Structure formats: C-alpha cells, structure tokens
Amino acid sequence: GKINEEVWRFLLTGGVALENPYPNPCPEWLSDRAWSEVVRASNLPHLEGLKECVQKNVSGWKQVYDSLNPHEIEYPTPFSTLDGLFKMTVLRCLRPDKLIPAVQNFVLKNMGQFYIEPPTFDLAGSYSDSNCCTPLIFVLSPGADPMAALLKFGTDIGLTGNRIQSISLGQGQGPIAKAMIDKALQDGSWVVLQNCHLASSWMNTLENICEEVITSDRTDVNFRLWLTSYPSDTFPVSVLQNGML
C-alpha cells in the first residue's frame, strides 16, 4: 500500500524535537530522549494514545524494551496489532538498535528474499571489463569473505601457485604490500590487499600507488590489484572512482 509520508518522515528522523511537558513515567529504564520520541509519535496516524498507553502500562512496555527481539513480539494492547512502518516507528523510539532487522523483515515480507541479499560480485564480468591499471574493489558486508571465490576464479583462468599474493592490511603491513605490488607489476601476477579499512594511515600511499605507480607503460597486462574493505571514510575516493566495484 501507499506509505504514509508523515510516518515515513518520523521513522527516518524521529520528528522535530520540541519542549516536552510530559514527565517521563519510567526514567529508570527509558531515556528522556526516547520518551520525547514516544510523545511525538503519539501524534501520528494509528499511534494516537501511545503516550498514555506507556504511562498506564509501564511494565508491559518494559517487557518490549527488555526483549532480545522486540521487533518480533506483540506490543501491549491496543497496539498489539501494529505492523509495518507503524510498528517500526514505535521500535525506533524504544529500541532503535533493532531497527535494521525490523526493516529487513519488512522488506522480506513485502518484496521478497532477493531484496535483502547482498549482490554477488561478478568476478568474471568485472575481470573481463578491467585492465591492469584498474583496481577491483570488494565492499565487504558482515560475514562476507570473497577470498575463496577469488582464489577459485584465479585457478579457473590458470593462475596457480604464488600467482595470487594476498596480505591482510594492518599495522606495519604497508611496506610489505608495496613490495608485493612492485614485484607483481613486473611478472603479471595478482595482489589482494584485504581489510583496507584497518590501514587508514596507509590509504594515502595506496592512492599514490594507484595513480603514480600502476601505469600502463610499466605494468604487465596480466597484473590485477584486488582490494577488500568495509565502508570507510578513509578509503581513497579517487581509487573508488577509477576502480571497479
């Protein structure tokens, strides 16, 4: 159905913070900020009376607050039938830490499994579209480890033995990685730099390597640089722009 614009905006922002004249009925476990959001949410469609319900049924709402899975249990009456964005709005007030799994459940129910699964990295397609000066970048998500698939792909196209060199970046690993790249540029092997997000102080060097060192006139055409990283503010923008995700 159609998404209520007012509820959607509240879900994203928590509403506009105004002076709250209503005392927090349960300050020992509910923060004043959360209570203020409950008060504001009470003005939304289908959530009228939420403030009064929390005031009158503190123990019932504390069970929601204390639950390991508050996004999967019923709320106290008369809000026990809430679902969708309206239920997530209340969750945002009380347990915002569970909003992501709630959104995933919502998308799963309304759109299907396909829309909550991270896209698979098309190794063959990305490789064929790349060249020796194009870094290939895996943006990691929790639990993801592309190394096994990458090693298998390398084997499938004939890279065996030490033709794929890998190093997990971290303190003191930068010079080793640089030496691996310098060698691979000449012999046309692959280098995989894992966990770039752990080497923020080395990212300027990586940027320089990609811009100044890995050039077509000094790089074997078979060379490839693969990078893995969780989203990071320190990852070089120019490498992202010139690389393949």
UniProtKB/TrEMBL annotation:
GO terms for cellular component: dynein complex. Residues 131-244 form the Dynein heavy chain region D6 P-loop domain. Pfam families: Dynein_heavy. Coiled coil: none annotated. GO terms for molecular function: dynein intermediate chain binding; dynein light intermediate chain binding; minus-end-directed microtubule motor activity. GO terms for biological process: microtubule-based movement. This is Dynein heavy chain 3, axonemal. It comes from Nephila pilipes.
